[in-house]
Predict the 3D structure of the following.
Amino acid sequence: MSLEQLLTSIPPGTADESLARQVNVDRLPAHVAVIMDGNGRWAEQRQLPRVEGHRAGIDAVRDTVETAARLGIRVLTLYAFSIENWKRPASEVSTLMVLLKRYLRSELKTLLSNNIRFRVIGRTEDLAPDIQDELRLAMDRTASNTGMLFNIALNYGGRAEIVDAARRAIASGVRPEDLDEERFAGFLYTAGQPDPDLLIRTSGEMRVSNYLLWQIAYAEIYVTETLWPDFRRRHLLEAVLAYQKRERRYGGITAPAVIGSR
Ligand code: IPE
Ligand code: IPE
Ligand code: MG
């Protein structure tokens, strides 16, 4: 996919088109990670039950996934449900799971037509069997796609991931003296994927909420006041443009010639 691909789906003369034209495709973040936050507040503002915010959030997911794939982002990771989110009322949790299932069913065609590979990261073994089946189906059906990798973080916790990686490292029999950062990263759920270059959080909260703790070591953080259900192509393009203005240093003193890994 490419900018041209994206432009074919944007009506000419619109603000979205002008934003898209400003993007430097040679400096795209290889991996964009998103903390989709603010669904509850979106619903509260409308005197609706919180779950209506989650329902509305699906449109934002659809728009973001398609825009990222068309733009040529290599990896997109969306935070859909944290291990800590089990603290919420059971009815909210079960609605979230039903919505996820419905999304996967209805969007599989779109994932396939956009050449998107779907993966799940998190402790999926603790999810209900019907959810696990649905996830497995989406992963299997999209496994041979070669375009964007779309990770959904589900029953995910950054610390849990690091513990799971440590367990796998020990089980693999790797000798402690042979374990370094690169090798350890190979035991994470995201093994083989580039680290996020850009971390987006919606709804204005300035925290990482246990998301990709290892991988975001040098991610550029972009927080927008926009609530997740209102997030659209325009907002993703704005985030990418803001990212492209950043100077990344990685602890050094000069900006590298190329931002990200492409
Ligand atoms: C994000 O929206 C969705 C999930 C965490 C599943 P919230 O439900 O956290 O919305 P707020 O933060 O209460 O507004
Ligand atoms: C982070 O949002 C988790 C997801 C987006 C799935 P939360 O709403 O759960 O985070 P906190 O509680 O505000 O830190
Ligand atoms: Mg929240």
Observations:
- The radius of gyration is 18 Å.
- Residues 159-190 form one domain.
- The pocket of magnesium ion (ligand 3) is lined by residues 37 (CB under 6 Å).
- The chain has a mean pLDDT of 96.
